[in-house]
User: Fold this.
Amino acid sequence: MDDHGLSMRPPPKRTLFRARLPAPGRGVDATIAGFEDVRLSPEQAEDFLVATAERLAAARPPSAPAEFNILAISGGAAGGAFGAGVLVGMTRAGTRPTFAIVTGVSTGALMAPFAFLGSAWDERLTAAYTGGLAAEVLGLRRLAPAFGAGLFRPEALEQLIDPFIDEALIAAVANEHHLGRRLLITTTDLDRQRSCIWNMGAIASRRDVRAVTLFRDILVASASLPGVFPPRRFSCEAEGVVYEEMHVDGGVAAPLFIMPEALLRWKRRGGDLQGGRIYVIVNTVLEQAPRTTATNLASILLRSFDTMLRFSYRNALGHAATFCAANDLPFSVATIPEDPRNGHMMSFDTDGMRRVFDSSVERAQRAGLWVTPVPDANAQGDAPDAALNPVWLA
Assistant:
């Protein structure tokens, strides 16, 4: 343990270049032995959210109805320093809600356990994004040999999360899960080409070594940006046959996991929001930022990926905004403001990440951080197309 009570043991060694087993075929319902009920499809997740809302509401006396808040945290790599600062700033301002459900994708998955557990874990969250470990672990000298499955070695993300995602944190997640709250992390099943939603509290509740390993592996998989980090493999079985799934960054299939349709279903069944809302933290800049792109391969790839990510988030938020506005569902979004000093999403410079973190801490303590995107009334075409160009209103 270090001075902050963080686990400092080295992560387990893994073999990257061994041959993989076949993936489950069409119609094969393979599960992870001992964890048969911890995974959800996107369709199952909708029912899961409604059941969670009803369970929490039933646990409260009629005189104190539940305030049902959902937090969805996006990817963004080094931009995760923004989301971390938002959470810490809300704590300092006294405005941080208790989130009934927290969902995370990519770097959002790495901070989601801290968002789920609340302000008591802010010190560890701050250290994770500003302590300099990212710059050390993801520096150029840590690049993998040529022809690997990613630019970085397979242990890079394990080394990044290991000091912060320890047995104490996982036990705390299990305790909150027992109270009815839910932590969901999304990965992309590359073989099936679809999202996989993991019920992290159910995994944590197993309270054994295998649960700790699986919990960490899922966080690593959700943050494993293809080409940058190697995929994560999960052994599973069906009818005595062992298979192997390959999972990568959750943002490949879904940039955000919001589920407003499920919240509407709960509302129509008599659920009372009581001031609750859907919060979304987007760990990147959404507004277009014209600049001259250098002609080297790295700059072109980074700029292209940043552009793709930006359009993906705007699209997802636009559709969610249209749905929420039409159904009177409260919806708030926080996103990184454009600032040339921020660098790109793969810039893990410690000073730069601290600057983004400190700025978002300050913004979260005053008005204007959260905005409500609404469809652009001047947009042409039908409603879905109009939603792709939201107007950002405070």
The radius of gyration is 20 Å. The longest helix spans residues 297-326. Residues 1-13, 379-394 have pLDDT under 50 and may be disordered.
